[in-house]
Structures
1.
Amino acid sequence: MFGLIGHSTSFEAARLKAMELGFDHIADGDLDVWCSAPPQLVEHVEVTSPVGITIEGAYIDSCFVPEMLSRFKTARRKVLNAMELAQKKGINITALGGFTSIIFENFNLLQHQNVRSTTLQWQRFTTGNTHTAWVICRQVENNAPSLGIDLSKAKVAVVGATGDIGSAVCRWLQARTKVGELLLVARQQQPLLDLQQELGDSRILSLEEALPEADVVVWVASMPRTLEIDQASLKKPCLMIDGGYPKNLNSKVAGGGIHVLKGGIVEFCRDIGWSMMAIAEMDRPQRQMFACFAEAMLLEFERCHTNFSWGRNNITLEKMDFIGAASVRHGFSTLNLQSNLQATAA
Amino acid sequence: MTTLNAPEATVMEAQDALPDFTTAEYKDAYSRINAIVIEGEQEAHDNYISLGTLIPDQAEELKRLARMEMKHMKGFTSCGRNLGVEADMVFAKTFFEPLHTNFQAALKEGKVVTCLLIQALLIEAFAISAYHIYIPVADPFARKITEGVVKDEYTHLNYGQEWLKANFEASKDELFEANKTNLPLIRSMLEDVASDAAVLHMEKEDLIEDFLIAYQEALGEIGFTSRDIARMAAAALAV
């Protein structure tokens, strides 16, 4: 069985969902009530891949909402409790979705392996970052040409280049595609210098310097709400892959030759009978999902029960090859601009 | 990928540090918390003995559980002594009064299911969650004692679970009813203890969530669906 640990995009959305599911008492509660609400296994699903393998899965809502981010202990507890529930339910491989993997990484939850009487078995969990990185790379390769951008001449800026996903994207683009030039953007200098040395041909730039030069921008960093992007200074056409979480780039820059694509999203080849992906605000919630969730499915399809994506900077090209091949074999395709446009038109 | 504010996380992490066990404030709060634990174990002992009269074929097993509770009570009494704290037993008696009354009423009416829900599910889940949260912030002596106790308490929770699971269909309606009446009492007990627990670095939010996790898990083992469980547990969240 595979598992997905997710959460609502906001407190308000969480209350609406709880109401819809008939949990009125919780829905009516204030944020303090939600802070004390235990994780819930909300639904079971069955998924059959085109090669005929059927797997079972479960969606666990951690009852975390982004409004809890400032409450460090609450956020930590929500993630650990959801992981404990997944393990106790005997789930082989569970993806940490949305903010949960970010909390795990940034709040150093590796130090909290014991949750009450349970010792968390890390091999049962994956951040899903390998698949996310592979999907973002494929989104660059698939969509740049459709906008008339010749990747072999293009400058591709990776914002958040030194992160787990960002560095994997850089490695892949450098090794497996012929991008004209990689522009590396990140806040910390030393990791940037290390990455540049590893990659060879690439340039370190500030965000302000990189944006006007870039034909393609891959965002895998946090974006401050106050960030203003001078649209006039951008190249046209420009492909922007919004690979961060939450996805808020569209409202900032889309239009006038700037094409924003939700990054790290995949679509399964047939409808999945679940209701929970609607809370992730997917355009086609029966088929679309975060690539990190799909990674748990892929690992279950492949009977590869291991913490495939774990820690920082452990994503290798070989792992991306493996998960990418599995992704194609089991009926996933990457979200691209055309289907976005179709969805908008519909 | 969003990055959270690391320095803030560091500051918050520091709050996990142990409290100063020697302050007057700590000892004052401990006198009530310690009393609750001692009284709780005493009640548990008495309740298991009483349950033996309702389930005579299980009387021996229940006596065994009761003996363990007595051992726990002695352990916790020594924890107070170790810190030079006198347990406020008057407070603890009042604290348990509503639940005690409900248990005694059910006992009189021969309601095994209600008695098991109160003692073997609610009180045990309450104890397990509180002990788990206490262990990391306890003084070294109490930590050792509590770690031993918590292992036993799981077997007690398990006892009630197994009995109710075996008699699930016949017990279901009474369990719904007993939950409705008694779960809100646990919630107010958690409220009553919150400020003292905070002095011991145990947070109300943690106590409630961990209690609900243990309680929901027990209800699941007994045979309730997740929807039933969420509905039943909601009574503990609504203040």
2.
Amino acid sequence: MANPMKIRAANKDGVTEVKVLISHEMETGQRKDANGAIIPAWFITELSAKHGDKVVLQGEFGTAVSKNPYLAFKFKGGAKGEKVAVSWKDNKGDSRTDEATIA
Amino acid sequence: MNRRLLQTLVTAAFAAAVPLTAPAQDAKVADELAKYREALADGNPADLLEVRGEALWAEKRGPKNASLEQCDLGLGPGKLEGAYAALPKYFKDTGKVMDVESRLVHCMVTLQGFKAEDVTKNWYSKPGRESDIEALVTFIGARSNGMKIAVPATHPEEAKMAKMGEYIFYRRSGPQDFSCAICHGQEGKRIRLQELGNLTTKDGAGTAMKTWPSYRVSQGAVWTMQRRLIDCMRQARWPEPNYLADSIVALETFLQKNATGTVMETPGIKR
Amino acid sequence: MNRRNVLKTGSGAALMGVLAAAGIIRPGLALADWNKAAFDAKSMADTLKALGAGSPADSKDVQVTGPDIAENGAVVPVGVSSTLPNVTMVAILIEKNPNALAASFVLPEGTEANVQTRVKMGQTSNVYALVKADGKFYMATKEIKVTLGGCGG
């Protein structure tokens, strides 16, 4: 089971800035272990962020996104106390959703 | 490569270098590296580990089914604020100077009933292998963020450890006849593009000590001070001390004493 | 069922299943289909082709944000921003990586053309920001140098 994300969302002058930290190995599939065997690729492929029911961002990742991915973006609207939810899924079929309250 | 092409390349390289004098270029590189570090500071993956450490601290675990909430890290049972900044310290109950990691392991053994060899087996993480100690130390460290490092080492046992640490710091050893002081005992040294702190001064030791535990982007993991120092020994081609060895606690005591008064900025993030 | 409580307490695949069953999210709609062809492409040209971008025009209204020098290639903070109107997609491409495409984002109306993330770079390389605005593709580039660091004090 994947560890929780850390999501921060803050509204300033009508724009909500969202910063997300995701706990994930983002293994490239190009590294070898101590025995010389390829470590299989294991990475987040898709991600989406919602403000209420409205999708505010959809992302696709390749293996070049760093371990423990970081993402920051801004959308118009959003008010203090409302929720932003972020979901991801990886190439092994694992997935996770977390949410944060807009500050 | 033919000679003419080489000559052209060399000329081009010199031409490119002309507009900037060497010190100006150094300053520009330093500026850009500062920008890089600043961009990483907001959104430190160590925060994810801190959350896990906080949960582990409060969770009832081990043969005694107890949490760590009564663990005394030197300021009294359960008192976490500022505890990291005041370690290593002499503990009456064990009769030893202990750093945060040796004290944490002591609590896991005495309060939770774990065996020391079991809880220290994964004292650092690898991909796919989490370390409870790393998470707990990140959490404990964060509870000293913004506080001043305070290891005056006034207790005779602490003074003795600081002295031992100082001795180790200056002692040349290993196949390369290396000491810590060779890299970290003078101002203005660097390895590749990285400045090497002078750990014998308050500023130098403070800059180094205040950011640990720290997320190492090159490792994709938080490193504790034990791991940092044990790896320093490896890099100096010394035999690697065991985890929680007295020599490491002694070095920590020496460095924390030098850094005393510096405000903690932890968890840190660095290359 | 209280959705917020579910979100707070639940997690992972089980939660997604619950949400999907409740009709809150529909897999394949909330999460778009991953563009395998684009992420598997090696060269810049093949990647742009797979993204349907052809040969985008250079634009001064598109920026690659990031440092000139990265102390470690494992984590390089980069982003895309643009002042062009009606930006619907942005992507980050790294010319000298084994696969050029690092990440792409669909921006619904109201989301600013400013997305920051962190990527791995195998070596010093040109980093490209690709932007789709009003149905047309634009690009900007910046070289980011990757250095070999020291011990990591």
